[in-house]
Amino acid sequence: MPFGTRTLSSGSEHDFDRFYVEVLRPIAQTARWAVLRADELAEQGTIVNQAFRHLQSADLVVADLSAPNGNVYYELGIRHAISPGKTILVAARGTELPFDLAGQRVLFYDLDFTADTRFHTLYARALNGEPNLDANPVRSALTKLGLHSDPETDHVAFQQELNLKIDRARNVEQLVAVWHWARQFESLPISSLLSLGYRLAEAGDYANAVHALDAAFPTAAQDYEVHRQRGFYLRKLGRLEEAEAALTRANELNPSDPETLGMLGGALKRQRRYTEALERYEAGARLSPTSLYLAVAQAGMSIIATPHDPEHGLTLYRELLAKIESDPGYEVDSWANLVAAEASFVLGRLDNAYAHARAGVRLGAGRLDLESATEQIRMLDDAGFPLPDAHSFVRWLSQGAAGAIPANAGQAARFRKRIIFHLSDVHFGSFLKEGKKIDAHRFHDSENTSRLSLELQEEFVKAMQRSGCEPANATIVLSGDSTYTASEAEFDLVRDFLNELCGSLGLEPRQVVVVPGNHDIDWFQSASNWSHRFDNYLAFAVKFYGEPLFRELYPLVTWDLKMPGKRPAPNELIYYRADDTTAFVGLNSCVFEDNQNHYGFIGKRQLDNVSRVLDMKKAPEIRIAVMHHHLHPFPEPLETRKGHDVTLDLSTVRDAGMVEQRLEKLGFSLLLHGHKHKPQLRETLVRDPLISSSTTVRPLIVSGCGSTGVSTHGLEHNQPNHFAILELLQPTRALGADFVAVEWRELTVAPGAEWATKQRWTLKG
């Protein structure tokens, strides 16, 4: 409405401030409305943004149309367009309304407004929801056109729209806006309200989480889950008696739900009714003996109830920690790591506590989980159980719960795109065939071709310019089979190739990831001394990187590189390099490769070593594994076989299923490999029955490179030479957001051919 005194079209003076103070506001307050006018806003932000926020979120808006005012008309249009909430139109009697508003229901009042009792009555009725006085013509028209949905007329479409709004919200302000939009409707879907309540609670807005679930009644009167979650949020607000009542009702509706018993125990614990709380936790643990939530609550409550005799609780903590750390699924379970952090802290194992807590936060622990752990430690300390450093640990852990949604939004603004040039099977070297020397490598300086370093230099420069990536953020990955026979002379060719390529691009040796392939194993050495078969490869790595950098990149190799010394085990040839967002881990898939055995293998010991390196180095979130041999499925067409014939490819990674599953557990997002001279790109996930189905394990993105440098003898079915360009688009792997772009560049075997893009994909997180 306008402010101050204005001249109406009739020529009369009208005091809008007095009309607001003496009529509109007191009648609305009598009807139990909280009343606010635009000039009474006292919030941060621009006036326009504040006005829009309130126009969207207000349960009711009153618009006074008495004076022709562009702001009033504009804001009324905004209200009708963005909110399904109620709007009441009022105007001084005799006002000439614009044509588009003349057909709407308007409450007219006399200029002697304090004495206009008829208006007072009609206005009070409208405030109390009298039908047809608050219709939204824009909303009605859009609903008829199918551009808006209504739960009364199309329940399914409305639920889909509401769920999309909830999923799209990225911070508490957006979630509250969704709630303000949704609460204007009747018959809201219960499942959507549960989801919205959870998201609001995760963001720390427990009050609106309770309001959202209140909207589920009376439909949800017999729904134990609504009572349970509402009770939990009430408990977080400190309204403990109401929380106990809601949780007790949930328990009556479903006495076999262990989660309800745990939440009820939490409400009783905070009322210092420790014996009753412990009984609820124990009952819940009997119903669900595998629940970490109930187990850790029972352990803590046992100590809080009897801090002078804590041994039983400490025993429970020890058993719980041992159980978690022996479970192969804990490595990717944020809640398991937080429970292990609490148990370790209570048991005095501080380094272990901080390590598990960091892992829990890195794996995506939410606000509710972090608060659960910190509250229990705080209560143990308050109960008198000696916990040195409790306040600093709680404060440190609580910082992980303070971020907006998503937690890494600030990091994304500082992130500079990473680009990876994935090469494989360049095959520098030669072999004998029928007494003739055959060159295994395609590229040489001649009239028709250039050496590979020059070919790729031009390609890589163009790619970095196109993507806006600085050389400092580029990585070259060479996923094995750099040579053909693994001779020292062939490795010298590889070193010359990499030195020239890096020098022309401004890259340092540390920006190159190299892993061994089956052709990088010295078969002649393996015949005479099996443990020496990696000698030439290791000598090449030391020469290329320099010994200080080699020691840094291969943290498990302790051999002094002198011939009499003990060689590293094949499962210790692990490459590791990381920056603030991305870690590269090179694996040795040639553990058993020699002159007799030709197949890929990684093994549990090597995977355990990888896990140890990741923990030791505190690896960042984006983790990229590199190895030579490919995982299933076969990247090539198979010849037709008879029914009794067996399809067998001995060159595959024999323990591929275990390797893939373990890499997923260790938080790897990408696996780069080569070997078959045929490119492949897929997303894959090996489910583990020991991991809860509610635990988010994201698929592994597997990018297989063709052969970048082999000559035509190694290219089947007219397969071209190939390399891949991968652009990391985000500092984290966020669900639904663009994560990595993969481009295939290929060069056919035809004379005069040029590198060309075969395909480009953008994969979501």
From TrEMBL:
Presence of the UniProt keyword Translocase in the record: no
InterPro entries with a match to the protein in the record: Calcineurin-like_PHP, CNP_phosphodiesterase-III, Metallo-depent_PP-like, TPR-like_helical_dom_sf, TPR-S, TPR_rpt
GO MF terms, alphabetically ordered: hydrolase activity; metal ion binding
Record key words, sorted: Hydrolase, Iron, Metal-binding, TPR repeat
UniProt keyword Hydrolase, yes or no: yes
The TPR repeat ranges on this chain: 224-257, 258-291
Domain Calcineurin-like phosphoesterase residues, every copy: 420-679
Record-stated family: Belongs to the cyclic nucleotide phosphodiesterase class-III family.
Protein name (record): Calcineurin-like phosphoesterase domain-containing protein
